[in-house]
Design goal:
Blueprint (H helix, E strand, L loop, with lengths): L3 H7 E5 L3 E6 L4 E3 L2 E4 L1 H13 L3 E3 L3 E4 L2 E7 L2 E6 L5 H4 L3 H15 L19 H19 L4 E9 L5 E2 L13 E9 L3 H14 L5 H13 L10 H4 L12 H12 L12 E7 H15 L1 H5 L5 E3 L4 E5 L5 E5 L3 E3 L6 E5 L15 H14 L3 E8 L5 E9 L5 E12 L7 H15 L5 H16 L1
Parallel strand pairs: 1-8, 2-4, 17-18, 18-20
Antiparallel strand pairs: 2-6, 3-4, 5-6, 7-8, 7-12, 9-11, 10-11, 13-16, 14-15, 16-17, 19-20
Length: 460
């Protein structure tokens, strides 16, 4: 377990949208809210940032943008947390923020996490890099113990007995007629998927500090002893085919791909030069809300109603040949085949001094296009809430199929993400607040009519 002093020296916790001073130094550290970074570390961060801008780096300060996750460069870890609390309390609530982030990831399936706060992990002290790998290893070990996936592997070999089919093209030497070149399939655990898991766990075991995590990773490597330990490229991982028989391992392979594609570690290297696992917070927020609404429609809307994420509801324009172009794809669509409501999530803080509460014209035009194309009865822009009081209503004047304009309510709402998601009371409070926010998208009259219709059908 990492102690507080080592954590301060080797890791920095940044919160999105906050700016931190930094200075060049001979050693990496984070003290008093200031980053002290070596020239090598700054160079590596610039290189990572050029591929995926997650930091705004100027001459004297660094600001975390709307990506959350962990970056390791030159032995120094930077973990970026979402800003769920007001500035004065966010650092004091670090463990809650870390736990909530893991809960959101577990709900969306972005990383293979089914257990958020296992015994032995201190979210106040361990960095996200260690936590991600620990949870990955713990869940993978259980999956492998339950099932080691075997696949048919195509082999070519020279044998003394026939196996499979004889390769007659190579069976031409009269002096070696007792040696038979054969092509055959072998049902083996030494396949690409298992080699990917073993190679990744071997590399991970050399990058983490927590002993319990190292033990989990080594257990996986030992279980996969019949599997060849060899480097696996990202291109090879992309060739892995998933079916119903091995689908449960897909999240773990996805995590392996992220690790290997963002890490410079090899079998010969002694340490990771750089590594990053970054998730765009606006996408995570959208997927999280969609997953929560989908899992219990009756609780949130008063009846079962289909909830779809990123559904294409139409095209925005046509070219001169009549071909439809530019997909209209709201974040969350409620109802099918008739669309009853649309939710678009926006991950940004609203400006309380703005009379429109920070809602941009582009957001309004977007919702107008959705409402016009789908004939949805209601629309909502849903934001994360930091300053608690966020509520506004607009009315969109939308043309109806018969040519007359109809008013479509557009509700601007915000949901609080600072409940402790890993405590039952906090999770239930969050769900209750979300229900109060989205329930008006389907009116009580509609819910009651659907319920009476269903009752009549059953009684009839």
């Amino acid at each position: 377990m990492l102690n507080q002093v080592n954590e301060r020296q080797s890791a920095a916790t940044l919160f999105e949208y906050q700016r931190y001073p930094y200075a060049s130094s001979t050693a990496n550290s984070f003290c008093g809210g200031t980053l002290f970074l070596t020239d090598t570390t700054i160079e590596l961060l610039d290189r990572l940032n050029s591929r995926k801008p997650f930091l705004d780096i100027d001459r004297n300060t660094i600001q975390a943008l709307n990506y959350v996750g962990v970056v390791r460069a030159n032995g120094f870890t930077i973990q970026i947390f979402p800003k769920l609390f007001v500035h004065e309390t966010c650092r004091e609530q670090r463990s809650t923020v870390a736990g909530n982030l893991l809960k959101m990831l577990s709900q969306t399936g972005n990383v293979p996490i089914t257990e958020v706060a296992p015994v032995g992990l201190d979210l106040r002290k361990m960095d996200l890099f260690e936590i991600f790998i620990h949870l990955f290893a713990k869940n993978l070990l259980i999956a492998i113990k339950n099932s080691q996936k075997r696949e048919y592997i195509r082999n070519s070999d020279e044998l003394r007995v026939i196996r499979g089919r004889i390769d007659f093209k190579h069976h031409i030497n009269p002096a070696r007629m007792h040696i038979i070149p054969c092509r055959y399939h072998e049902f083996s655990v030494d396949n690409l998927m298992n080699r990917t898991l073993k190679y990744t766990c071997y590399l991970m075991s050399r990058t983490v500090s927590d002993f319990s995590t190292i033990r989990l990773l080594r257990s996986i490597v030992n279980i996969l002893d019949p599997v060849t330990l060899t480097p696996v490229s990202v291109a090879e991982i992309d060739r892995i085919a998933f079916s119903r028989l091995n689908r449960s391992f897909e999240p773990y392979i996805r995590m392996c791909r992220v690790f290997l594609s963002n890490s410079s570690l090899t079998l010969q290297a002694s340490e990771v030069e750089s590594f990053s696992l970054l998730i765009p917070m606006e996408r995570l927020f959208e997927e999280f809300i969609s997953a929560i609404l989908s899992e219990d429609q009756a609780y949130f809307f008063g009846r079962n109603v289909q909830v779809r994420s990123q559904a294409i509801v139409g095209k925005f324009a046509r070219d001169t040949n009549g071909m439809k172009l530019f997909n209209l794809k709201p974040d969350i669509v409620i109802g099918a085949p008739e669309i009853e409501a649309i939710i678009d999530t926006k991950y940004k803080q609203l400006d309380r001094t703005d009379r429109k509460r920070g809602v941009s014209q582009a957001d309004l035009y977007q919702m107008y296009a959705y409402a016009t194309k789908t004939n949805a009865r209601r629309c909502m822009l849903l934001y994360p809430e930091v300053l608690l009081e966020q509520k506004q209503d607009f009315m969109l004047s939308v043309p109806s199929p018969d040519g007359a304009d109809v008013d479509v309510p557009l509700m601007i709402r915000a949901i609080r993400l600072s409940y402790d998601f890993n405590r039952r009371e906090g999770w239930e409070a969050f769900r209750s607040e979300l229900r109060e926010i989205v329930r008006p998208l389907i009116t009580e009259q509609e819910s009651l009519a659907a319920t009476e219709s269903g009752r009549a059908a059953v009684e009839g």
